[in-house]
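Quick one before lunch.
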Amino acid sequence: MKRLAFTSLLAIACATPALAAPPSQAGKSVASTAPTVAEADAFVAAAEREQSDAELFDARIAWINATYLTDDTNAVAAEVGGRATERMVRLAKGAARFDGVSGLSYDTARKLAILKQFVTLPAPSTPGAAAELATVSTRMEARYGKGRGTLGGKEINGSDIEAAMGTVRDPAQLKEMWTSWHDNVGAPQKADYARLVEIANKGAIELGYADLGAMWRAGYDMPADDFAKLTDQLWTQMKPLYEQLHCYTRARLNEKYGAAVQPATGPIRADLLGNMWAQEWGNIYDVVAPNGPGVGYDVTALLLAKKYDPVKMVRTGERFYSSLGFQPLPATFYKRSQIVKPRDREVICHASAWDLDAKDDVRIKMCTKVNGDDFVTIHHELGHNYYQRAYKGQPYLYRNGANDGFHEAIGDFVALSITPDYLVKIGLLDAAKVPGAASDTGLLLRQAMDKVAFLPFGLLIDKWRWGVFNGTIKPAMYNQAWNDLREQYQGIVPPVTRGPDAFDPGAKYHVPASTPYMRYFLARILQFQFYKAACDQAGWTGPLHRCSFFGDKAVGAKLNAMLAMGSSKPWPDALEAFTGQRRIDGSAMLAYFAPLADWLKQQNKGRQCGW
Ligand code: X8Z
Ligand code: ZN
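Model of the L-captopril complex:
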């Protein structure tokens, strides 16, 4: 989802004393008497109005900037962003005035809590701080968007290099792409990142948090420390499966490339896994495929064979949601979305979904390629758009996911339904080519290479950032700490020794864009919980991974009911509405992969797993 880092809040006439308070005073108890319940209600109403009034303009500026990167659009976006940050910080401080006021209604209390941690990158009240923060963050995101690597000595842009990492198998070329991308795109971000951390941390402290990480962890309807514990528990639950997958993959890479490229023990070389960040490994499925009956098809090849273009891929994604009973996308979606990379200008290619007006102006922004990865990403982005539409009737502050992990999980959950039988239904796969039960291991392995492989990556990005924000990771140690975490959790190492100037986190979009990342870790687990619940609702009794709820209107209605809640209730209520469970838990994901887990253990017999 695109939650603008600097969202909204154009000044309307100062409607309440809290809104009128100068920034340096707002948030402290400026009134001589304790604020009242009625004042809190009025403050929230005014804040919602101010914020939603500002949103459309701010979002348009951000859209123009992201789809047409120039010095001018950067300047305008930074200026609007700086003002928006000031507004949001003012409202957060205004909300904090009501801390401890008793007798607040449920909605007022919840909305005040949401307001207090609504801004992703807060600035302190020091004059010029918000403007500087916006300038630095706009510059970093644009620098990432314009980033280039090389392949065979020739310059190659971000979306092309991302795709090439999935198809190239020559270790020297992979190393070249990996190294050039990390050197060209990551390293130049380091100084800006250190400055961004300095400013935003001060902003978080002014809002009453220990640091920015504590603020980010506070958005989950539970104490921030409990949230950190929850993520560790989930990882502990999933880690044995990851270790088996790592062990098996390393052995197959060692067979293919030999010990000089990939030793049989120790960590895996990061550039051999089919993805620039080694975050999903499905692209090297051909390297690890089991002997015996293959899965018999590959989505990229099917799309190409049936002459799909990016728009047709999006229409196909839309059709899935329509089959569940969701209204078709508006004509403006196709008119205004950026579905392919414009030929003649720089843009931010990293995929995102936008809701400009909370009415019907939803869009995606992608640089779509005709391949299996982007087919899934389209479903992912559309999941955001349908979520946004489902909650548009909520008051402004509730127009959000139950938590940010829910927002990231919806489209992925839908894409789990892209089974062989589903591909037959939509005419992409011939019925005669549907793989039989003997191919289940292959099908599961291919999914695991994407879904299971992602888990430690999803966890460690914000483990690193939390350490940066709380000061345990100082700028001089940024890269070392990053690579230590990559080795500790993922069991991977860079293909080359990293130099003193390297800043590898800067080569991953969400770091320069300051998009919190734990949401994707949660989503990876939640999507299987949603999927298992949907398949249970649909009465599916076969192997879980063969279930597709395409066309099931009852599942769609129940899904819509959860989505329509937005963030109006604590997330366990939303989870319960769709799954009957109140805890996020990896059991459904483990159940999905259970047959594969047994198979991997067999395969790994006699191997020394771990790194
Ligand atoms: O950033 C995304 C989406 C946009 S919200 C394309 N994802 C993460 C990533 O690419 O790193 C989806 C999966 C993880
Ligand atoms: Zn997303």
